[in-house]
Amino acid sequence: MVNMKIAFVGKGGSGKTTLSSLFIRHLAATAAPVVAVDADINQHLGAALGLDEAEAAGLPAMGERLGLIKDYLRGSNPRIASADTMIKTTPPGEGSRLLRVRESNPVYEACARTVELDGGAVRLMVTGPFTDADLGVACYHSKTGAVELCLNHLVDGPGEYVVVDMTAGSDSFASGMFTRFDITFLVAEPTRKGVSVYRQYKEYARDFGVALKVVGNKVQGQDDLDFLRAEVGEDLLVTVGHSNWVRAMEKGRPPRFELLEDANHRALRTLQSAADATYELRDWESYTRQMVHFHLKNAGNWGNERTGTDLAAQVDPGFVLSEGLVATA
Prior knowledge:
Blueprint: E1 4-9, H1 16-29, E2 34-38, H2 45-48, H3 53-57, H4 66-74, H5 106-111, E3 112-117, E4 120-126, H6 141-152, E5 161-165, E6 183-188, H7 192-205, E7 212-217, H8 222-232, E8 236-240, H9 244-250, H10 262-278, H11 284-307
């Protein structure tokens, strides 16, 4: 039994939300505890998991509850003077409250909803849709910052999965959120545009030990497969072709998940096996160092000026996030 944080990335229209929703359904069918997070600007994960338009629109937005999230996670950490001084990269320290996948807490109560699937159920959290108010100074990253704060304070336990449908392209590199995962699945179509995001992501992630695997989507024949192999090499993990099940799901009439094509069930099992295999590589000290690295970078670039305080002082030098920590009540 392992515990994993998994990201799905790719350019807009690549099919990453569809594939992330299939993977979430696959995990739920194994009875694994799953927290699913829609961190994309275009909020479609709820619909892909079977919610109707009204249900999806009614999901509580994490971005609108950022104050509550900060106040809860801050806990009694003496290095954080107030929730107002927390930014998206603020790391936990002694006294901070940590999140667990299976627990009940005020963050989940405010921001998560249970979605029943035919193979089980998952907790779904969404950043909230992009609006005019997110333009300019506020920017959409103020909403995805709620996701990053939660990931920074999350200690996932045995047999648990956190699956995040990320922003399209390489937007996650505006912060350190791309380092918060055990493995990243990059969904790419067999086209020049399809692999361009892969090259960009690979280059950015090179120095941070990010485990990156490519999922070829909309692959229709040997020529498509040969193209992807030539472009991404050994990073190509698996390919997915046309699916009548997915077409029915996109029309709002998904059959039972067990009726998904055998080839696609095998592809999902391959994704899970690849994710599980990276767990052995998890290094909590490195994970915490990267968290601190990006926090100090953001503090110097804009955070100190924005908050009027020295955010470097929020770093607890003796703290390492790990499974052995007990969440503060």
